[in-house]
């Protein structure tokens, strides 16, 4: 066998004098270009608002629907606080502890609810 580099076999591939049909194509991104993205990558990215943020500037719901959702969520907060109070009373907790716990939970949950832009 000669030492001519054109007839030497490359590791993992056919000899360099093999016909072009046997040559293996280079993997994506090896030829110096960026690797191709998945089809539809651009279509799956979230739309940006006018100011460049992820939330659109207009509300997602109409005003009456948003008000109804907030009222229902507020009723849920009252229900959670009532259940917490009932559990604490059943456990013979002091009255001031029950009142403090119920009021703190109610205020924190209501603040989170009314601060939300998505409701």
Word description of this protein:
- The chain is elongated.
- The chain has helices spanning about 40-45, 65-90, 95-115.
- By secondary structure, the protein is an all-alpha fold.
- It has a domain at about 65-115.
- The protein is about 45% helix and about 0% strand.
- Helix 2 packs antiparallel against helix 3.
- The protein has 3 helices and no strands.
- The mean pLDDT is about 75.
- The longest helix is centred in the middle third of the chain and has 28 residues, at about 65-90.
Structural features:
119 residues, 3 helices, elongated
Layout of secondary structure:
Elements: H1 41-44, H2 63-90, H3 95-115
Q: In a nutshell, what does this entry contain?
A:
By secondary structure, the protein is mostly helical. The protein has helices at residues 41-44, 63-90, 95-115. The chain has a domain at 63-115.
- The parts where pLDDT drops under 50 for at least 5 residues are none
Secondary structure class reads: mainly alpha
What proportion strand? under 5%
What does the overall shape look like? elongated
Give the proportion of residues in helices: 40-55%
SSE ordering: HHH
What is the CA-based Rg, rounded? Answer: 33 Å
Major sheet attributes = none
End-to-end separation: 78 Å
Q: Count the strands?
A: 0
Q: Average the pLDDT over all residues and give the rounded result.
A: 74
This entry's quaternary arrangement is: single chain
The number of helices is 3
């Amino acid at each position: 066998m000669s030492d001519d580099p054109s007839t030497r076999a490359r590791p993992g591939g056919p000899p360099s004098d093999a016909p072009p049909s046997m040559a293996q194509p280079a993997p994506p991104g090896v030829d110096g270009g960026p690797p191709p993205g998945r089809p539809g990558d651009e279509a799956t990215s979230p739309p940006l608002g006018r100011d460049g943020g992820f939330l659109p500037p207009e509300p997602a719901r109409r005003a009456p629907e948003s008000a109804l959702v907030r009222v229902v969520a507020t009723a849920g907060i009252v229900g959670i606080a009532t259940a917490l109070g009932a559990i604490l009373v059943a456990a013979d907790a002091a009255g001031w502890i029950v009142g403090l716990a119920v009021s703190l939970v109610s205020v924190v949950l209501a603040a989170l609810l009314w601060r939300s832009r998505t409701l």
